[in-house]
Amino acid sequence: MLSFENVCFSYGEAKALDGVSLALKKGELLTLLGPSGCGKTTTLQIAGGFLFPDSGRVMLDGRDVSALPPEKRPTATVFQSHALFPHMSVEENVAYGLRVRGTPRAERLRRAAEMLERVGLDGYLKSRVQDLSGGQQQRVALARALILNPRVLLLDEPLSSLDARLRVRMRAEIRSLQKAFGITALYVTHDQEEALSISDRVALMQGGRLVQVGTPEEVYFSPHGDFAADFIGDAFPVTLEGRRQLLRPDQIVVAADGPLVGTLVSRAFLGASTDWVIDWQGQTLRASVPSAAEPAREIGGEVRFAILPSRDRNA
Ligand SMILES: Nc1ncnc2c1ncn2[C@@H]1O[C@H](COP(=O)(O)OP(=O)(O)OP(=O)(O)O)[C@@H](O)[C@H]1O
């Protein structure tokens, strides 16, 4: 479908991508995940034809598209800012790409209306985009991309301008639209929860390279190295029975009859859960305690807990 073959790219002297090889399967949603500056957006822009590789190739349906500009590629991009035209109505925004392609007016408006119905915005055809909510604008941006019938949909942090609640709702909507259309999608985010919840596979990046590519469960339960374990799931290192291990906060279970005894160093209330930092034999542990079941404890007081075995299949 879409693949990157040993793609390298530099902005002047600064190397942004250092040999990225990745193949998307037909109909899958693959997420590029990683910290700021790791090269996610650069990879997406190379897929969309906004940037061209210094070396390596981008293949789409078996064809080398490395040198093609965006309008010559069967891709469509949804940007972080939505990039909608504020002076145009919703239907004009959605029909825009068809207008550029020379589709007759009656047909493009018919298809725009159809697409807006599919994203749940029928009734808003004549609205001005600035009168819509953030979530509705997001759906207009999706409809505008999907109407072009792209082979691959590219999404660059499409939810980052929305508030936290709407982000959670819209990621489910994007996922269900992507499945309903059966479209292959490349999605960029720096939010690990978003990546785990929305993806068929996650590609974790660091410093312009791919660290690990796998299903959400694979990258969570079998991280390749400390960076992956820490970035996806906040793992921390502990020495247990003379062996270094990576634990996650949900493996530390605070319980009155726990076999291990430590000292509570600090706690941070997060709502549904409360993060505890526990000192245990000079080692620092982090526990995620369900707030409803949080025992009353003084900072500096004794804490009893158990450690759940790791589900890491490589451990
Ligand atoms: N236009 C540019 N000119 C120079 N350097 C750039 C430019 N755009 C990006 N870079 C650099 O290239 C590297 C990769 O950037 P990129 O935007 O792909 O990362 P990212 O993972 O998408 O980060 P973010 O999540 O912050 O958007 C970074 O070190 C960044 O500083």
Characterization of this structure:
This protein is α+β, with helices and mostly antiparallel strands. It has 2 domains: 2-226, P-loop containing nucleotide triphosphate hydrolases (Rossmann fold, 3-Layer(aba) Sandwich), CATH 3.40.50; 236-307, Nucleic acid-binding proteins (OB fold (Dihydrolipoamide Acetyltransferase, E2P)), CATH 2.40.50.140. It has helices at 40-48, 90-100, 105-118, 134-146, 164-181, 192-198, 216-221, 225-231, and strands spanning 2-11, 14-24, 29-33, 55-60, 63-64, 75-78, 152-156, 184-189, 201-206, 209-214, 236-240, 243-247, 252-254, 260-269, 273-280, 283-290, 302-307. Strands 6-7-8-3-9-10 form a 6-stranded mixed sheet, sandwiched between helices. A 5-stranded antiparallel sheet has the order 13-17-14-15-16, with no helix packed on it. Strands 2-1-4-5 form a 4-stranded antiparallel sheet, with helices on one face. Strand 14 (260-269) and strand 15 (273-280) form a beta hairpin. The model has no long low-confidence stretch (mean pLDDT 92). Adenosine-5'-triphosphate is lined by residues 11, 14, 16, 34, 36-42, 190.
Main sheet: strands, sense, barrel: 6 strands, mixed
Distance between the termini: 34 Å
Overall radius of gyration:
23 Å
Mean pLDDT: 92
- Determine the strand fraction and express it as a percent band: 25-35%
Please write the string of helix (H) and strand (E) elements: EEEHEEEHHHEHEHEEHHEEEEEEE
Low-confidence stretches: none
The CATH architecture term of the largest domain is: 3-Layer(aba) Sandwich
CATH class membership of the largest domain: Alpha Beta
Number of domains: 2
Are any ligands bound, and if so which? Answer: adenosine-5'-triphosphate
